[in-house]
Amino acid sequence: MCLDSISRFDTSTTLSTTSCHSFLPLPDAEIAFYPSLLDEQDSDRLLAKLTQTIDWRQDWITVYGRSLPQPRLTAWVGDPGKAYTYSGITMQPSGWTDTLLDLKASVDVIAGVTFNSVLLNLYRDGNDSMGWHSDDEPELGQNPVIGSLSLGGTRQFMLRHKHQKALKAKLALVSGSFLLMQGTTQHYWQHQVSKTKRAVAPRLNLTFRVIC
Ligand SMILES: O=C(O)CCC(=O)C(=O)O
Fold first, then answer.
1. Fewer Cβ neighbours under 10 Å: the N or C end of the chain?
2. Average pLDDT value for the chain
3. Are the beta carbons of 181 and 121 closer than 8 angstroms?
4. Nearest partner of 61 among 122, 146, 129, 124, judged by Cα
5. What are 20-29's pLDDT values in tens digits?
6. What Rg do the C-alpha atoms of the chain give, in angstroms?
7. Which pTM was predicted?
8. In angstroms, what is the span from residue 58 Cα to ligand 1's centroid?
């Protein structure tokens, strides 16, 4: 199925006019994958701009009683008052930039929701990662809608079912791709981006969210 819409952002970037997507054939999940929402040129331009202009931070997390720096840089951008708490960290939102607002307007159309926040994750190299989790914090509502745009180096997005241990999936999140998770996905599935020894280019991931 293809989405026949055109949206513009940042005055010079065009989302694909035929954003073909497919649904992952996973039980208890509603996950659509758009492999090429942005073309290579637009993805590279956006990656460079956001890497340079976002106010990145590195929080500390407690793992097995040890305090360690989070293995990636993050930023939380959103509407006023839309704080987000995960892994014991509460992030207060920075204001939207024009680039992020334009991008949000486009992914809003694709997802059919009005996102009010975005978590940005910068994976500097293969040592940066995100462990197994579900995006199921109470402030994301009953059935969270998560719109995830990837820019830069390809990383593997791994999924595992919470109750049926044999159910697993892996997806290469290439630059310019968009992954939309909704419905009961977060109830039944966890996901991660693991470390890799392969040489990988820096990667920026933006997960648009609705904070209730
Ligand atoms: O980097 C990714 O693709 C995953 C990000 C993620 O899982 C999250 O922000 O919750």
1. N
2. 92
3. no
4. 129
5. 999 999 999 9
6. 16
7. 0.91
8. 15
Taking CA atoms only, the protein residue closest to ligand 1 atom 3 is 205
Ligand 1 and 119: CB distance under 6 A: yes
Euclidean distance between the first and the last CA atom of the chain, given in angstroms as a whole number: 30
Q: Please, are residues 127 and 196 in contact by the beta-carbon 8 Å criterion?
A: no
Domain range annotation of the chain? 2-209
Q: Is the pLDDT of residue 3 over 80?
A: no
Query: What is the pLDDT at residue 16?
Result: 47
Q: Give the residue, out of 128, 132, 151, 157, with the most ligand 1 atoms within 8 A of its beta carbon, to mutate for a pocket test.
A: 157
How far is residue 32's CA from residue 41's CA, in Å, rounded to a whole number?
Answer: 23
Which pLDDT score is estimated for 63? Answer: 80
Mean pLDDT on 57-84? 94
**CATH entry 3.60.150.10 includes domain 2-209:** no
Assess contact for 85 and 138: CB atoms under 8 A.
no
d(CA 105, CA 175): 20
DSSP state of 4: E
Which stretches of 70-167 are assigned E, i.e. beta strand? 73-78, 84-86, 89-91, 117-123, 130-133, 146-152, 155-161
